[in-house]
Amino acid sequence: MAIGDLGQFGVWRYYGGFTPQDAQDLEGLGYGTLWLGGSPPADLPVIESLLEATESITVATSIVNIWTAPAKQVAESFHRIEARFPSRFLLGLGAGHPEHQGEYRKPYDALVEYFDELDAAGVPKERRALAALGPRVLGLAAERSAGALPYNVTPEHTARARALLGEGVLLATEHKVVLDDDPVRARTTARPRVEFYLDLQNYVSNLRRLGFTDDDLAKPGSDRLIDALVAHGEADSVVDRLSAHRAAGADHVVIQVLSDEAATLRTLAPLLAK
């Protein structure tokens, strides 16, 4: 899978949130990839129905959780999908959150072991990518996969990640969107989704590395934090914010719309295509 196969912009929803008709509609609007969020089960049952309904769009997981989806079973699912739809599926995987796991070893070591199992099962390096925030895991993403899938980050993080990854390594960055020109209302819409991550150590640690303070990170999150993590305003302003990730070095930007998704994606599509 070439980096360009993802397109410049894709759409994130929780796993199971896309229907085949949604996939057709988003492909028609020009979005390059559907990102299936949450922790999809190892048998990946939804993906083939989305690929079957479309012509060229890529489907990716964001992310398969290594603690809940055994590598051997994930590899079997990968090969099943690949046999029917060559080069249209990207396996995104990650270590999840220690707060949400009953058993949690050092994530770096567990990721290395998981990659070893995928290698043994014949899942190509270039067809998998890794959720990564900090320098060490970004380095692992570059070494053992097609590249990195940062989530809940800013364009400043994208620039740092690109400098660490180097050129020719996939960098697909998620950013949230509220299409609303009233900043108070937009922040009110956005804040619950951002607040959720303020209980998760890996995200909080990464936001501290980006310069956010205790005041910013105290729940429910400062206006400064919301504005950094959620693009809001009129359509042109939102597009500028999403495009800032591209300017900072992202190959692909994953759009997560927090309200009025269908209308928002229709409005943004022609502007993103310019």
Give a verbal description of the structure:
With 274 residues, this protein is of the alpha/beta class. It is built from 12 helices and 10 strands. Strands 1, 2, 3, 4, 5, 6, 7, 8, 9 and 10 form a 10-stranded parallel sheet that branches. Strand 7, helix 6 and strand 8 form a beta-alpha-beta unit. Helix 3 crosses helix 4, helix 6 runs parallel beside helix 11 and helix 11 packs across helix 12. The longest helix is centred in the first third of the chain and has 14 residues. The radius of gyration is 18 Å and the shape is globular. The model has no long low-confidence stretch (mean pLDDT 95). It comes from Nocardia vinacea. This is LLM class F420-dependent oxidoreductase. InterPro entries: Bact_Lucif_Oxidored, Lucif-like_OxRdatse_MSMEG_4141, Luciferase-like_dom, Luciferase-like_sf.
- What structural class do the secondary elements suggest? alpha/beta
Distance between the termini: 24 Å
Number of strands: 10
> What would the principal axes of the Cα set say about the shape?
globular
- Backbone CA Rg: 18 Å
Number of helices: 12
Instruction: Identify low-pLDDT runs.
Output: none
Please specify the SSE layout and strand pairing.
Elements: E1 9-14, H1 20-29, E2 33-37, H2 47-52, E3 58-62, E4 64-65, H3 71-84, E5 89-94, H4 107-120, E6 128-130, H5 135-144, E7 147-148, H6 155-165, E8 170-179, H7 183-196, H8 201-209, H9 214-217, H10 223-229, E9 230-233, H11 235-248, E10 252-257, H12 261-272
Short description:
The protein is built from 12 helices and 10 strands. The protein is of the alpha/beta class and 274 residues long. The protein starts with 8 loop residues before the first strand and ends with a helix.
